[in-house]
Amino acid sequence: MLLGTYQNSIDAKGRCIIPSRFRADLGEKLMLVKGYDSCLYIFTEEAFVEYVNSRILNGSDVDKNSRYLRTAYFYGSCEREVDKQGRINVPQDFLDHAKIKKEMVNIGTLDRVEIWGKEFLEAREFAGELDSRQYMEAAAEPVKG
């Protein structure tokens, strides 16, 4: 299970260490994806396929938004292999997307790992955007039909 929060940094060659607690569950071949809200996702191959099938490929090719979502999602995805030191190489455009300058935060969210630029995540926390109570309350409200 991918759970926990770990901090690390990107090195001069664009590599980051995958926390050892996550490596056991992720394996050696990973899918790196430009996620929503300026973060990166790391999936196992199996979890990536499941995520894509349930959330990305369920639209029609006739629908323009579905086609664009599919293109954008796969354009922002790449396969990575974990080296012997437990690192992956993160392309510069992925680092830019996640606003990672040097320090990063890895958050296990059960089915994937989210990677955030530490400064960006701290700014969101300071702005109150990471107060889970407001989201739990909104999710608990009945849907109006």
Short description:
With 145 residues, the chain is an alpha+beta fold. 38% of the residues lie in helices and 30% in strands. The termini are far apart.
Note the topology.
Layout lengths: L1 E8 L5 E3 L2 H7 L2 E6 L5 E5 H12 L7 H12 L1 E5 L5 E3 L2 H6 L5 E8 L2 E5 H9 L5 H9 L5
Antiparallel strand pairs: 1-7, 2-6, 3-4, 3-5, 4-8, 7-8
Along the chain, the helix and strand elements come as EEHEEHHEEHEEHH
Discrete helix count: 6
The computed structural class is alpha+beta
Radius of gyration: 16 Å
Specify the helix fraction band.
25-40%
* Mean pLDDT value: 85
- What gross morphology would you assign? globular
CATH topology: Chemotaxis protein chec
**What does the largest sheet look like?**
6 strands, antiparallel
What's the CATH architecture name? 3-Layer(aba) Sandwich
Measured by DSSP, the beta-strand proportion falls in 25-35%
Please give the CATH class. Alpha Beta
**Tally of separate domains:** 1
Identify low-pLDDT runs: none
Could you tell me how far the N terminus lies from the C terminus, measured between alpha carbons in angstroms? Answer: 36 Å
Q: Let me know the number of strands.
A: 8
**What is the assigned CATH homologous superfamily?**
Transcriptional regulator MraZ domain
In the sheet with the most strands, the strands line up as 1-7-8-4-3-5
